[in-house]
Amino acid sequence: MRKVHIVGVGMVRIDRYYDKGYMQLIRDAAVSAFNDVKSYEPEAIVVGNMLSSTLYNQDSLAALALDAIGFRGLGGLKVEAACGSGGHAVIVGYSLVASGLYDQVMVVGVEKMSDYPTSTITSALAQAANAEYEYIYGVSFPALNALIMRLYMLKYEARREDMALWPVRMHEYGSRNPYAQLRNRITIEDVINSPIVSDPIRLMDSAPIGDGAAVIILSSEDVARKLSDTPVEIAGVGLGSDGLDLSSREELLNPISIKRAAEKAFRMSKLTPSDIDVAEIHDAFTITALLSIEGLGFADLGESWKLVKDGRFAVGDKPSVNLSGGLKARGHPVGATGVYQIAEIAMQLRGDFPGVKLDKAEKGLAMNTGGVGTLTSVVILKR
Amino acid sequence: MKISPARVWREKGSRYRLEGSKCKKCNRVFYPPKPSCPYCSHSETEKIDLPKRGRVISWTVEYVVPEGYREYAPIIIGLIELEDGTKVLAPIVDVDVDKVYEGMHVEAVLRKIFEDGNEGIIIYGIKFSPTI
After folding, report:
1. Could you read off the pLDDT of B83-97 as tens digits, one per residue?
2. Which end of chain B is more exposed for a tag (fewer CB within 10 A), N or C?
3. Are A116 and A342 in contact (CB under 8 A)?
4. Which residue among the candidates A83, A88, A171, A282 is catalytic per the annotation?
5. Nearest residue on chain A to B14, judged by CA atoms?
6. Could you tell me which residues come within 8 angstroms of residue A291 by beta carbon, excluding any fewer than 6 positions away?
C-alpha cells in the first residue's frame, strides 16, 4: 500500500443553519479546504453522512456533493456507520489512495439536523440501534447509553458529580474553538441540574444537535508536497464492531469495537497509546468519553473517570484529549463528526488549530464511533 | 416507524414467546436470536425457550422519546438478566419510575408495544413486570 497524506482541511462552524442546505454547507467547507492547499485536482469523493435518507429523502449524496463543489463527473459514494460515518468515510478515502486507484481524493462529512424538532431527531438517531428489538420499544439512543452509564456507575462506584467533570472541561475548550457550536462555560451544578433526557443522562451529558460540514483532501505521497508544505501522514487506520443490540453483548462495559479498531491502527503505525500526543475521541455522552479512553488503551477498564477527576487528559497531558471541545461542545453533526476530528488532529500536528492547541504535537489519534460503540474507526496521524 | 404484518409475523417466536438462540458449538445463548454465533463464528444455532423470570441489572427512565411514543412516556427501559444468564432489553411496566432498583425481580408479560397510526397494525410483545 502507498502512504497517504492529509494535504488540506476545511470546516464550517457547527451551528443551526436555517439558511443553508447540504450543498451550501459542503461548498463552504470545500472552499475552506481548497484555500488550505496550493493546488487541487480531486479525482473522487467520499461522503460521510448518516441521516440524509431518513430526514431529507436524499440518497445519491456524492452526486449532490460533487455539484456543490463543481466537480460533476467524478466518481464517489456515501459511507454510513451511524454517528461514526465520518471516520469511516476517511478510511474509505484513505483506501482509494493507498491502493493506487486515485492520487487525490476528497472526503466530505456533512449533516443537517436543526430543521426538525427534537422528537424527529430522536427517532432518526435511534436508527443507530437495533430496529426490531430496541427502537420498536421506543428506546432512544440516549436511553441505550443511559443503561451503560448506570452500569458503569454501579460497577465502578462513580458518583453523579464525577460524571459531570468531562462536560465542564469540554465546554471550557469549546469556548476557545471558533468552530465550536457551544462556547459557553458551564459548572458541575449546571450539568447535574440540567433536564433529564433518559435518566441518568441529562441534557448537559449529551452532545448538541447541529449542522456542519468538514472536508479533508487526501493525496498520495508523491504529490503531497506539491499540494501542501505541511502534509500530515496517515500512519495507521483500523475498524471494529460490537453487537448491534446491547442485550446480546457478553460484556457491556468492555468496548471491543474500539479496542479492535485501535489495535489495528496502532499495529499498522508501529505506535502505542503512550506515543500519542493529542487525541479527539467520541464523547457523544460522558459515558462514551470514558469508554473511548479505556478502549483506546489510555486507561484501564473502570479507571478513566478517576483519571479525569485527577486532571488527566487535559491540555498539556499526554495524550491531551478533545482540545476542540469534543462532541459535547464543538458539536456533533453526526455523520460529519469523524471528519471534523481528523481535520482537527491534522491542524494540531501542523500547529495551526485555532483553539486550544498543543505545542509540538507529533502524533495524534482520532476515534469515531457509531451506535453504542457499535462501529468504530481509529485513524492515527503523524508529522 | 413503518410496520408491515410480515415484519411482525416473522419475529413471532422471539417477540411473543421470548425465544432465543443457542450456538450448537459453544452453547452461548442470545436474545434477540442470531442465525450464526457472533462469538465463535459457528453457523448453526437452535431456537430455545428462555426463562420468563429474571432480575434488573440496569435501567433508564426515558423522558425524551422518539416520535409516536409520547403516549408511553416516561418509558422505563430495563436490561434484564434472565434466570439462565441471558440478557434481554425491554420496557419495565406496572411500577413507578422511582421504584426500580438493581436486582429487582421481574417476569415477562405480553403487552402492547406500538400502534402504527390510526389504520396500521398494533404490535404486541414482551415487557417485564415486577414479580409478585
Report:
1. 999 999 999 999 999
2. C
3. no
4. A83
5. A133
6. A148, A152, A253, A255, A258, A304, A373
Q: What is the DSSP letter of A285?
A: B
Contact call for B64 and A135, based on CB within 8 A: no
Domain boundaries, chain A: 4-116+209-232, 124-208+235-382
Binary contact (A119, B65; C-beta < 8 A): yes
CATH code at A4-116+209-232: 3.40.47.10
Q: Is the ipTM reported for this complex over the cut 0.95?
A: yes
**Spatial CA neighbour of A191 closest among A182, A218, A210:** A182
The rounded distance, in Å, linking the Cα atoms of A232 and A1 is: 17
Distance CA A45, CA A105 (A): 6
How do residues A303-331 score in pLDDT, each as one tens digit?
Answer: 999 999 999 999 999 999 999 999 999 99
Reported as a single tens digit per residue, the pLDDT across A213-231 is 999 999 999 999 999 999 9
Q: Yes or no: say if B22 and B29 are a contact pair by the CB < 8 Å rule.
A: yes
Cell triple for residue A234? 496517515
**Which of A133, A138, A150 is nearest residue B65 as measured by Cβ atoms?**
A138
Cell, residue A193:
441540574
Measured between CA atoms, how close is B125 to chain A, in angstroms? 9
Min Cα separation A159/chain B (Å): 16
Residue appearing with cell numbers 441534557: A203
- The CA–CA distances, whole Å, from B94 to A330, B89, B91, B132 equal 41, 16, 10, 11
